[in-house]
Write a structure and sequence with these properties.
The structure holds 2 protein chains of 2 kinds.
Chain A (H helix, E strand, L loop, with lengths): L1 E8 L6 H4 L10 H5 L10 H4 L5 E4 L11 H8 L4 E4 L4 H10 L3 E3 L1 H6 L5 E5 L4 E4 L4 E4 L5 H9 L2 H8 L1
Parallel strand pairs in A: 1-2, 2-3, 3-4
Antiparallel strand pairs in A: 1-5, 5-6, 6-7
Helix pairs in contact in A: 7-8
Chain B lengths: L2 H9 L10 E5 L2 E5 L3 H10 L11 E4 L9 H16 L4 E2 L8 H7 L8 E4 L13 E4 L2 H10 L1 E5 L3 E7 L8 H12 L8 E5 L1 H4 L3 H9 L8 E3 L4 H8 L19 E6 L6 E3 L7 E3 L10 E4 L1 H4 L2 H11 L9 E4 L4 H9 L2 H7 L3 E2 L20 E4 L15 E4 L2 H10 L5 H5 L2
Parallel strand pairs in B: 2-3, 2-5, 3-4, 5-6, 8-9, 8-11, 9-10, 14-15, 14-17, 15-16, 17-18
Antiparallel strand pairs in B: 1-7, 12-13
Classes of the chains: A alpha/beta, B alpha/beta.
Pathway (chain A): Amino-acid biosynthesis; L-leucine biosynthesis; L-leucine from 3-methyl-2-oxobutanoate: step 2/4
Catalytic activity (chain A): (2R,3S)-3-isopropylmalate = (2S)-2-isopropylmalate
GO molecular function (chain A): 3-isopropylmalate dehydratase activity
C-alpha cells in the first residue's frame, strides 16, 4: 500500500496525554477523540491535518499511558502513518493491534520538517521525502508481528487462531 | 535466567527463554478500568465471543472517572458493571468497595508472587514489587486475552539497579525511582525489565517497593521487578487465597546493564515540569510558589504515604494560599488512617480528604488546575496539561515533600517544617 501526505513534525517523547488529553477520555468514539488529537502540543493540528498526512517524530513517540485512544485518535484524524526514531512499547503494540501504520526510521525522522511532502510504501517499508528528494528504508517488523498486521489486527488474528 | 525470564518461561511452558524471543504466555490476572475496559468490552462483543476464558482471572475497577464525574463517565462505568454481571466476573469492584486499582489488587491478595499479569493501564507494572511479572497493555490486547487467556510478549533485556548504602532521612521509594528516572531518562529502560535490588531496597517496606515498580513505565520499561524476600512474604501471607511461586534471578543471570547507586548521596527529589526525568534534589528546587498539593494516586496513596504526610502535617495548617487534597488509595487504607487518627490530622490541617479515585492525577476531576497554577503532586506524570490547563505546572515528589510544601506554600523539604 502506498501513502502520501504532508508531514507534521514533532520532537522527542511525545506522550499520550499530548496525543489525546485524559479530559476527553470519557468517550471512546473515534470521531470525538479525533477532534482533540494533539491538542495540548499543537492546537492547530486538527484544523490543518488532511486525510493521508503523516506524523513524524523523534525518539520515544507515544510514551506514558496505555490508552488505546491515542492511536485511535491519530487514525480517526486522518493520519495515514506515524514515522519515528523510536516508539514507546505500549503505543507500539496498540498501533499494531488497532491497525495504525507505524514505521521506525531514525534518519527519515531526523531529516524531515513540517510541511514536507512524503510518500510511504508500507509493504516494502520505503519512505520517500519528496521535498528533500531523499529515500529511506525503515526497520522491518519481527515475523510474528507481521502475522498480526497481515491478519488485519490482533482481534482478527485471534479469531483465525481459535 | 533473570526472575523476569523465569516467570515468562514458566507461563510459556518453556524451560528457557532468551531476551528478544517472542513467547505466548498464559495469564494469571487481567485488569481493566473505566477508561480502557469499555473498548475491550466492545471488541469482545464484536468478536462474537460468548464466554470469557476465566471469570475468576479478570478484574475490573472503575477508578479513573469514578465516582462518575459526568454522564459519559457514568456510561463507561455502567458498561463495566453490566458486563461483569452478565459474565459473573468475580473481581468487579464497585464504588464503596473499590480503590485505585494498583493499590487494591495487592491489598486484596489478587496478585501474588510469580504471577503473570497484564492490565490495560500503564501502571500495571506496580505488581513487580511482589515478585510478579506485570505489564501494561492496551484495550485490544486485553480484549484478546479475555477470550484466549494468553498474551504474546517479547522477552525483555534486563537492566539491574543496585541501591547500596543507608537511606537518608525522608528519602522514600518515590525519591529512589525519581532519582533513577532522572539518571536514565524517560526512555532509559524502553522495552526493558528494570530489576531493583540492593540493601536499600531490602530495607524498604512493601508500600515503598510498590511505588518504585509503579514508576518503571516512566522510564519506558516493560516491567519493574523486585525479588521476593521476608518483607514480601510478610505482606503476601495474610492476603493470599491461592498458591504462589517465588522466583529469583540466578547469580550468573545475564543483564544488559548493571547500574549502582549510592543511597547515602540521594536526598528527597522533585521532578520539574514537564517530564519525570527533570529531577533535582529538593534543596536545589529554589523558591517555587505553589497553588495546590495532591497526595494520593496509585503511586503514593498507601498507608505508609499517609503516615509520612501526617508526620509533617501534625499540628500544622496548610498555607492559606494552597489547597491540599488527599486521596487514600483504597477503602481499607482510608479506614486504617482513620483508626490511626491520621484523617483527623489532615482535616485539622485544613486538607480535603477524598474517597479513592484517580481523578486529579490525569486531569479528570477532583482537583483540576487553572491557567498558570502550580501543583506539587505525589502522582507519576507531570506532562503538559496532565492535571488541567496546558499552562499549568506539576512538580512530582514524595508525600513528605508534598506535605511540607503544602505547609510552606512553596516547594519545601520536610526538614524546613519539622526540623532536623
Amino acid at each position: 500500500m502506498k501513502l502520501k501526505g504532508n508531514v507534521f513534525k514533532y520532537g522527542d517523547d511525545v506522550n499520550t496525554d499530548e496525543i489525546i488529553p485524559a479530559r476527553y477520555l470519557n468517550t471512546s468514539d473515534p470521531k470525538e477523540l479525533a477532534k482533540h488529537c494533539m491538542e495540548d502540543i499543537d492546537k492547530d493540528f486538527v484544523t490543518k491535518v488532511k486525510s493521508g498526512d503523516i506524523i513524524v517524530a523523534e525518539k520515544n513517540f507515544g510514551c506514558g499511558s496505555s490508552r488505546e485512544h491515542a492511536p485511535i485518535a491519530i487514525k480517526a484524524a486522518g493520519v495515514s502513518c506515524v514515522i519515528a526514531k523510536s516508539f514507546a512499547r505500549i503505543f507500539y503494540r496498540n498501533s499494531i493491534n488497532t491497525g495504525l501504520s507505524i514505521l521506525e526510521c531514525a534518519e527519515a525522522a531526523e531529516e524531515a520538517d513540517s510541511f514536507d511532502k512524503m510518500e510511504v510504501d508500507l509493504d516494502r517499508g520505503i519512505i520517500r521525502n519528496l521535498t528533500k528528494g531523499k529515500t529511506y528504508n525503515s526497520q522491518g517488523f519481527p515475523k510474528f508481528v507481521q502475522g498480526i498486521i497481515k491478519a488485519g489486527g490482533l482481534m482478527k488474528w485471534v479469531r483465525k487462531k481459535k | 535466567m533473570t526472575i523476569t525470564e523465569k516467570i515468562l518461561a514458566s507461563h510459556a511452558d518453556k524451560k528457557k527463554v532468551q531476551p528478544g524471543e517472542i513467547v505466548n504466555c498464559k495469564t494469571d490476572i487481567l485488569l481493566g478500568n473505566d477508561i480502557t475496559a469499555p473498548i475491550s468490552i466492545n471488541l469482545f462483543e464484536k468478536s462474537g465471543a460468548k464466554k470469557v476464558f476465566d471469570r475468576n482471572k479478570i478484574v475490573f475497577v472503575p477508578d479513573h472517572f469514578a465516582p462518575n464525574k459526568d454522564i459519559e463517565s457514568a456510561t463507561q462505568c455502567k458498561k463495566l458493571r453490566d458486563f461483569s454481571l452478565k459474565h459473573r466476573i468475580t473481581n468487579y469492584f464497585e464504588v464503596g468497595r473499590m480503590g485505585i486499582e494498583h493499590a487494591l489488587l495487592p491489598e486484596k491478595g489478587i496478585v501474588l508472587p510469580g504471577d503473570l499479569v497484564i492490565g490495560a493501564d500503564s501502571h500495571t507494572c506496580t505488581y513487580g514489587a511482589l515478585g510478579a511479572f506485570s505489564t501494561g497493555i492496551g484495550s485490544t490486547d486485553l480484549a484478546a486475552a479475555m477470550i484466549i487467556g494468553k498474551v504474546w510478549l517479547k522477552v525483555p533485556q534486563t537492566i539491574k539497579f543496585i541501591f547500596f548504602g543507608k537511606l537518608n532521612k525522608w528519602v522514600s521509594g518515590k525519591d529512589l525511582i525519581l532519582y533513577t528516572i532522572g539518571k536514565i531518562g524517560v526512555d532509559g529502560a524502553n522495552y526493558r525489565a528494570m530489576e531493583f535490588c540492593g540493601e536499600a531496597i531490602k530495607s524498604l517496606n512493601m508500600d515503598n517497593r510498590l511505588t518504585i515498580c509503579n514508576m518503571a513505565i516512566e522510564a519506558g520499561a516493560k516491567n519493574g521487578i523486585i525479588a521476593p524476600d521476608a518483607e514480601t512474604l510478610r505482606y503476601v501471607k495474610k492476603r493470599a487465597k491461592r498458591k504462589y511461586k517465588i522466583y529469583n534471578s540466578d547469580k550468573d543471570a545475564s543483564c544488559e546493564e548493571i547500574l549502582e547507586f549510592n543511597c547515602t548521596k540521594i536526598e528527597p527529589q522533585v521532578a520539574f515540569p514537564h517530564s519525570p526525568e527533570n529531577t533535582k534534589p529538593v534543596s536545589e528546587a529554589g523558591k517555587i510558589k505553589i497553588d495546590q498539593v495532591i497526595i494520593g494516586s496509585c503511586t503514593n496513596g498507601r498507608i505508609t504515604d499517609l503516615i509520612e504526610a501526617a508526620k509533617i502535617l501534625k499540628g500544622k495548617k496548610v498555607n492559606p494560599n494552597v489547597r491540599l487534597l488527599i486521596f487514600p488509595a483504597t477503602q481499607e487504607i482510608y479506614k486504617e488512617a482513620m483508626k490511626m487518627g491520621i484523617i483527623d490530622i489532615f482535616i485539622d490541617a485544613e486538607a480535603v480528604v477524598s474517597t479513592p479515585t484517580c481523578g486529579p492525577c490525569l486531569g479528570g476531576h477532583m482537583g483540576i488546575l487553572a491557567e498558570g497554577e502550580r501543583a506539587v503532586a505525589t502522582t507519576n506524570r507531570n506532562f503538559v496539561g496532565r492535571m488541567g490547563h496546558v499552562k499549568s505546572e506539576i512538580y512530582l515528589a514524595s508525600p513528605a515533600v508534598a506535605a511540607a510544601s503544602a505547609v510552606k506554600g512553596r516547594i519545601a523539604s520536610p526538614e524546613e517544617v519539622v526540623g532536623k
